[in-house]
Automatic annotation (TrEMBL):
This is RNB domain-containing ribonuclease. It comes from Sphingomonas oligophenolica. Coiled coil: none annotated. Residues 47-356 form the RNB domain. Pfam families: RNase_II_C_S1, RNB. InterPro entries: NA-bd_OB-fold, RNase_II/R, RNase_II_C_S1, RNR_Ribonuclease. PANTHER family: DIS3-LIKE EXONUCLEASE 2, RIBONUCLEASE. It comes from the Bacteria.
Length: 461
């Protein structure tokens, strides 16, 4: 997963094997690189000059593929979020070499030792990235945020912007940010609570060296700056989704809630971590009180994210309201076009409808084709994520053969018993008879093979 960090290169060999196994691209074809070099020199001609607006970016310190920049104004009781999104479509011709390669990839793949980008670095980390090195073409979405957190798209335009600062999550100060930043995030969070949204943002996982040798999975809790920044993207995506739905077009991100069986399994997982989940609280109610700074609660947040059937994309369908259960709203992806193919087309459609123009036919046609492409990209990303986590768990436990761990049964199915270790963020299977979900187990690590990303357990006694 993109959040897994490996500062000591404990996973290098295994990561190389994962890249080979899943055919992670190592670079770009020559014709794509040549087209990208030419596109990077393309001068904007359809953009208004907004270089005087005080845009900033806020990302991990090491990020160079910057999709978003923002500034905030106040109009009466409302806040106006001016959210600038990288104008990728300005550099990518429909049907050209860059476009074709992007359709083959679908999304950027992230591994601890680097990413396989959707677009060549000369664009994704250069001409199209909203870096403060100089003026950049962008699409500015203006989102009106009411005092109750309600959002509405007020406008969209192509513009030239100049980011005044590349801010980092771990070092940003309130004085660095536009006035109203925290207030806007609070409004969006309050609106989520009222809607009953069940979105969770687990902390990042890291692979840390431990004293005496070996490695351990650890959690890096999310920072307040990250959560507030995410609220800006959320507000924009919600406003865009509503606008697209109202104009009978678009591509939407949808997700069903965890079913009853998954929720029951989560209750057993909570028990495994020693968490108290009152019987009269729903999952949505309970997770609002989770604290990502607590390792056990952080691990449970990851379990919640993995419990659902997963999100997918659907095009507009007459008479159907697309719904994202975690957001408790109609939702779209528009704010990461450097990293997701679908966003480029959602941005183009929104720009058209906001200015009274018809959505380009090539965009409408793409909306029916993108769900399959993005599903394949999501599947590949999930497989790579799972392989990386399996590798990390094997590295973490390679010196633990014969060691016992307390666990709790979270599920019993036709493949056997699934358990959650009580003291580590590890879910695994073990052969055990006569147990039910919620039962406590003592298990022993029986074999570990980092080369094959495998850890085996057996029931103690």
């Amino acid at each position: 997963m993109k959040a897994l960090i490996d500062p000591n290169n404990a996973l290098s060999r295994g990561l190389a094997e994962i890249r080979t196994e899943y055919q992670v691209p190592a670079g770009f074809p020559a014709d794509v690189l040549a087209a990208a070099e030419a596109a990077a020199r393309r001068a904007p001609t359809e953009h208004r000059d907004r270089t005087a607006w005080p845009f900033v970016t806020l990302d991990p310190a090491s990020s160079t593929d910057l999709d978003q920049a923002f500034t905030i104004d106040r109009e009466g009781a409302d806040l106006l979020l001016h959210y600038a999104i990288a104008d990728v479509a300005w550099f990518v011709d429909d049907g050209g070499a860059i476009d074709g390669e992007a359709w083959r990839r679908g999304a950027t793949l992230y591994l601890p030792d680097g990413r396989a980008g959707l677009y060549p670095p000369v664009l994704a980390e250069g001409a199209a990235s909203l870096l403060p090195a100089g003026p950049r073409p962008a699409i500015i979405f203006t989102v009106r945020v009411a005092p109750d957190g309600g959002v509405r798209l007020d406008g969209a335009e192509r513009a030239i912007i100049r980011s005044t600062a590349k801010l980092a999550y771990d070092s940003v100060k309130d004085s660095d940010l536009p006035p109203g930043f925290a207030e806007l995030a609070d409004r969006i969070a309050a609106a989520e609570d009222r809607r009953g949204a069940s979105r969770v943002d687990p902390p990042e996982q890291e692979v840390d060296a431990v004293e005496g040798g070996g490695y351990a999975l650890a959690f890096r809790p999310r920072l307040a700056s990250e959560d507030r920044n995410a609220a800006l993207s959320l507000a924009t995506n919600l406003a865009i989704a509503d606008a697209l739905q109202a104009h009978h077009t678009g591509l939407f991100r949808v997700m069903a809630p965890p079913d009853e069986h998954a929720v029951q399994r989560l209750r057993h997982t909570a028990k495994a971590f020693g968490l108290i989940w009152p019987a009269n609280e729903t999952l949505a109610q309970y997770q609002l009180g989770l604290d990502a700074a607590d390792p056990k609660q952080a691990a449970f947040m990851l379990a919640i994210r993995r419990a659902g059937a997963g999100a997918s994309y659907v095009p507009f369908r007459e008479g159907v309201v697309p719904w994202h259960a975690a957001m408790a709203a109609t939702y779209a992806h528009a704010t990461a076009p450097l990293r997701r193919l679908a966003d480029r087309y959602v941005v183009r459609a929104t720009l058209a409808i906001a200015n009274g123009r018809p959505v380009p036919e090539v965009v409408t046609a793409a909306f029916s084709q993108l769900p399959g492409v993005m599903a394949r990209a999501d599947t590949l990303g999930g497989q790579v994520d799972r392989a990386v986590i399996d590798l990390a768990e094997a590295v973490m436990l390679q010196n633990c053969v014969g060691r016992g761990f307390p666990a709790i049964v979270t599920d019993v199915d036709d493949r056997g018993v699934r358990m959650q270790l009580r003291d580590l963020p590890v879910v695994a299977r073990v052969a055990a008879q006569g147990v039910e979900p919620g039962d406590a187990l003592q298990v022993v690590v029986s074999a570990v093979d980092p080369a094959h990303r495998m850890v085996s357990f057996q029931r103690a006694g």
